[in-house]
């Protein structure tokens, strides 16, 4: 029986090989060759990059939504107990002034009035401020070798203004292509405006980092190595954003956002009661300090007489 010979050469490598087309006729089998390996790798990387871009957008949106929800809770709390917090802060400031007056009166030989004691404090603060201002100026002159350098506050104001403008150009609602995109941009813009009004440069920079995208322009095909580095970078950025989101969710405001409305109201009520107790205690402390101050003045008056 004759031996059957099996073809070992792929048909695609046979010169002039053709294959029947489903629609009839023939076509060269070379069109059926698989794509080069680097093309497969590039396509896979492009798909991975697209997936990670989607995940990054999801985390960014989650961070923006979380911050908006926490801002709303913060406004609700301020409406309920903001005035109590202000009163406590004012009372603490007044107690600090009374304690300072008593300390100065302890080393005084005359029963000075509150205005005189406060004037002494202002003079002391002015002298300290002048001393440190001169010290800083001398240090800057030594460091700059006579070259002028803008002060930290003015430099910070310029940085804040420039970054805010860059962020506004990037996320302004007028750049939206649909209603949903406009609503989303308006939400981010509100956060940017709040940060700008508060002088929060770190928040402006964080928003700018979150929403910066490469400018449109001529597309240049990146190399495989560049795509791989970009993929690693996106994964690292995703991890960092997830960490920020977890920190937001675990914060006190984040816990309130996730709490039951009734529990939140109970927590606010408890905080209100605590602030009222603190305020009552501070008022008693203020009265004691005022009695001490008056007693010291009477003592000095009797010594002078």
Summarize the entry for a quick read:
The protein has about 300 residues and is mostly helical. About 75% of the residues lie in helices and about 0% in strands.
Topology, element by element:
Blueprint: E1 18-20, E2 26-28, H1 37-106, H2 114-144, H3 152-171, H4 179-197, H5 201-211, H6 224-250, H7 252-258, H8 261-304
Helix pairs in contact: 1-2, 1-6, 1-7, 1-8, 3-4, 3-5, 4-5
Question: Could you walk me through the main structural features you see in this protein, from its secondary elements to its overall organization?
Answer:
It is a single chain. 75% of the residues lie in helices and 2% in strands. It is mainly α and 305 residues long. It has one domain (39-107, 114-210, 227-304). It has a two-stranded antiparallel ribbon with strand order 1-2. A hairpin with a 5-residue loop joins strand 1 and strand 2 (26-28). Helix 1 crosses helix 2 (114-144), helix 3 (152-171) runs parallel beside helix 5 (201-211) and helix 4 packs antiparallel against helix 5 (201-211).
Strand/helix succession: EEHHHHHHHH
Estimate what percentage of residues fall within beta strands: under 5%
Broad shape:
elongated
Q: How much helical structure, as a percent, in the residues? A: over 70%
User: Which segments are poorly predicted (pLDDT under 50) over 5 or more consecutive residues?
Assistant: 1-35, 146-151, 214-219
Largest sheet, if any? 2 strands, antiparallel
The number of E-state strands comes to: 2
**Count of alpha/pi helices:** 8
Give, in spatial order, the strands making up the sheet with the most strands. Answer: 1-2
Instruction: Label the structural class.
Output: mainly alpha
Distance between the termini: 144 Å
Number of domains in the coordinates?
1
- Indicate the mean pLDDT: 76
**Rg, Cα atoms, Å:** 35 Å
